[in-house]
Amino acid sequence: MSRVDPGDFGILDGISEVIATTRSESGIPNAAPIGIIRNQSSDQICVRLFYGSHTRQNVTETGEIVANIMHDPVMYVESTFGDLDLDVFEYPDEMECPVLKNANAWLLFECERSKGNLFELTPVKGVVCNKPPVCVNRGFNAVIESLVHATRYQLKRDPGYLDLIGHYDMIVQICGGNREKEAILKLKNIMEGVL
Ligand SMILES: Cc1cc2nc3c(=O)[nH]c(=O)nc-3n(C[C@H](O)[C@H](O)[C@H](O)COP(=O)(O)O)c2cc1C
């Protein structure tokens, strides 16, 4: 059993949403939101990576993935639907896998496919950065929910997802800060332009 405890990095029982960073075999960094699935009673930790993403391709090529624990809603939107600027990545300790500079914490995992879309994770090393604690903000959570519905809309074209995004937009306007409002606006623009 690994001595690195994901709980020390905020990855608790259930599904933790993080921005996962990976790199391609040729060294191109990538970031995308991913849910880390932890079952504390069986001491298992894994991810479900759907076919067709850069993240899955990179993990298959390199066997590594970094979970970046962070609360920037705009980066969640940008990394779901596009590429982040190269200057948001860094490579501490000459690591090959990139991490995000503004993460509150990051944790490197070895990642091995078990079956189907399921990949098992083994924590290797990580850093808890010296950042202040972050309270639950319903606006931030609403951005994340909207993004999940947007990715489902992209696949299924069910207009019900658009209604759900409208509902979460309302929560962002009431509970979110400027960054959450900027994120949901970006998402709505993407939905109008691309999806
Ligand atoms: C909050 C959130 C969680 C997500 N979790 C997963 C996941 O666990 N597995 C997955 O394959 N895609 C997940 N996605 C979708 C990917 O982030 C999305 O397909 C992304 O475009 C993949 O980017 P990439 O091609 O750069 O890897 C999630 C999206 C969001 C917004």
Mean pLDDT value: 96
Structural class: alpha+beta
Topology as a string of helices (H) and strands (E)? EEEHEHEEEEHHH
Shape: globular
Q: Name the CATH class of the largest domain.
A: Mainly Beta
The number of distinct β-strands equals 8
Number of helices, counting only DSSP H or I runs of 4 residues or more: 5
CATH topology term of the largest domain: Pnp Oxidase, Chain A
Task: Determine the CATH superfamily of the largest domain.
Answer: Electron Transport, Fmn-binding Protein, Chain A
Strand sequence of the main sheet, in spatial order? 1-2-3-8-7-4
CATH architecture of the largest domain: Roll
Through-space gap between termini: 43 Å
Profile the largest sheet: 6 strands, antiparallel, barrel
The residue ranges in which pLDDT falls below 50 over 5 or more consecutive positions are none
The helical percent reads 25-40%
What is the radius of gyration?
A: 16 Å
Q: How big a fraction of the residues is strand?
A: 25-35%
* Count of separate structural domains: 2
Task: Give a topology summary.
Elements: E1 14-23, E2 29-39, E3 44-48, H1 54-62, E4 64-69, H2 73-81, E5 89-90, E6 99-100, E7 105-115, E8 118-128, H3 138-156, H4 160-175, H5 178-193
Antiparallel strand pairs: 1-2, 1-4, 2-3, 3-8, 4-7, 5-6, 7-8
